[in-house]
Each structure stands twice: as C-alpha cells, then as structure tokens.
C-alpha cells in the first residue's frame, strides 16, 4: 500500500485494521500523523454528539406538535409544505452553484495538493495500465506518452469530476497531468496558483490540465496528449 491508497482508505475507515494499512502506518510518519488527526476528529464528533437528552423531552415535543396541528387549518398546512419544498430546492440549487463556482483549474490544484506524495514517484508505469485507466473513464487513447510515473482514476473537486490523474517526471521537476472527462472548458488559458504554473485547454470531449513549478515542458506535454487523445 502506498500513501495515496492509505489516504483513500483512511477517508473511508479511519480505524482500519487491515495488515497492509497497519504496516504502511508504521512505516510512514506522515500517514501515521494523518490517521491520528482523523481519529482525534472522530473523537471530537462523538463527544459533541454525546449530549444528555432532557427528561420527558419526547413527551413535550409531541404535546407541542399536537397542539399546533389542532390550531392549523388545512390550507395553511399545505402552504407550509410547499414553502418547505421550495426552500429545499433553492438550498440544493445554491449549494450546487457554489460547488461549481470554483474553476476547474482551482479544483485541479487542490487535488494535486491532496495527493502530493505521488510527485516523488519516478518509476515508469506500464503503458497498458495507462490505457486501462483511461478506458475506465470511457476514453480510448491513440497512443501513450512516454515517461509516466503515476496514473489513477480520481474524483476531482466537490462535484467529484470524473478524471485521470497522471505524473510525468521532467528535468525541471514533476509535471502533473489531469484530464477531466465530464467537463470541457471553452478556451485554453494559462494560470498561476499556490506557486504552480498551469495550463487548461479543451481536448477531445474533456479538459486537459497541466501543472508544474515551471511551464517549460507544457508545450511538449500538450503536443503529446493532443496526439494521444485527439489522434
């Protein structure tokens, strides 16, 4: 188990006891600290929820509800139900708009920071694994660029965009490639965020995002992925 797999399992089951999970925790101080923080957070939640219920609370609530129902006319009850439904629809819509308010470039940078451990990987990944990962996302590659050290199908951002996350080591440091399958930007754009240079561009039916400390390799990487995805 590597750091990325450990963090994913930690998010699902902080108290996991699987042998590979426990072994990685003992070997990786950073992941051990991450589990300690997760367990501490769960403990705080348990304490916060452990609130003593006042005596006869249920009876008091039931009495209040019964009294209110007797006083409420049928038309007012229906109006209240419609108002609640409308408020819920509005709240869901606003939450969705806020989740989508972040540009894909920002969501990609945040995802990179959440899995920074993979930037240290340098051993090449078999081309067949790259092809298979893209196929899982419904994308058929025409060819596979050389020098890929990490590939995984990852959800990106609050909306869990379907994507493929890759790392390509270069002489100027690791270059992160994120291909968003389910959303396509209108135009190409370069950007900077959190000390990183970035480029996003429409490609195929999705969006290609490149991230690195320097943009020196962006042109070469863009050409490689255009040939791989667009053909």
Summarize the structure in words.
This protein has 231 residues and is of the alpha+beta class. It has three domains: 3-49, no CATH class; 57-101; 104-230, Protein Transport Mog1p, Chain A (3-Layer(aba) Sandwich), CATH 3.40.1000. The chain is built from eight helices and six strands. The protein has helices at residues 3-12, 19-27, 29-49, 57-71, 74-101, 104-114, 127-136, 218-230; strands at 150-156, 161-170, 173-180, 189-193, 196-203, 206-212. Strands 1-2-3-6-5-4 form a six-stranded antiparallel β-sheet. A hairpin with a 2-residue loop joins strand 4 (189-193) and strand 5. Helix 1 (3-12) packs parallel to helix 3 and helix 2 (19-27) packs across helix 3 (29-49). The radius of gyration is 24 Å and the shape is extended. It starts with a helix and ends with a helix.
Low-pLDDT regions: 94-99
Q: Tell the overall outline.
A: extended
Which second-level CATH architecture of the largest domain applies?
3-Layer(aba) Sandwich
How much of the sequence lies in strands comes to: 15-25%
């Amino acid at each position: 188990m590597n750091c990325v797999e450990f963090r994913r399992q930690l998010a699902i089951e902080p108290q996991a006891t699987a042998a590979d999970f426990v072994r990685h925790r003992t070997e990786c101080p950073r992941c051990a600290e991450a589990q300690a923080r997760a367990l501490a957070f769960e403990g705080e939640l348990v304490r916060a929820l452990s609130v003593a219920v006042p005596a006869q609370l249920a009876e008091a609530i039931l009495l209040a509800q019964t009294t209110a129902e007797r006083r409420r006319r049928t038309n007012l009850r229906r109006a209240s139900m419609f108002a609640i439904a409308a408020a819920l629809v509005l709240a869901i819509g606003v939450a969705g708009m806020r989740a989508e308010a972040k540009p894909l470039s920002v969501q990609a940078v945040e995802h990179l920071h959440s899995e920074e451990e993979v930037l240290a990987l340098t051993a090449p990944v078999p081309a067949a694994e790259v092809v298979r990962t893209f196929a899982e996302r419904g994308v058929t590659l025409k060819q596979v660029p050389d020098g890929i050290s990490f590939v995984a199908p990852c959800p990106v951002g609050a909306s869990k965009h379907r994507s493929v996350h890759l790392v390509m080591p270069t002489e100027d440091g690791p270059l992160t490639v994120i291909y968003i399958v389910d959303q396509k930007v209108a135009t190409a754009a370069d950007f900077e965020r959190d000390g990183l240079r970035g480029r996003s561009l429409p490609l195929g039916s999705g969006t290609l995002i490149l991230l690195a400390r320097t943009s020196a390799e962006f042109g070469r990487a863009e050409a490689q992925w255009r040939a791989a995805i667009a053909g």
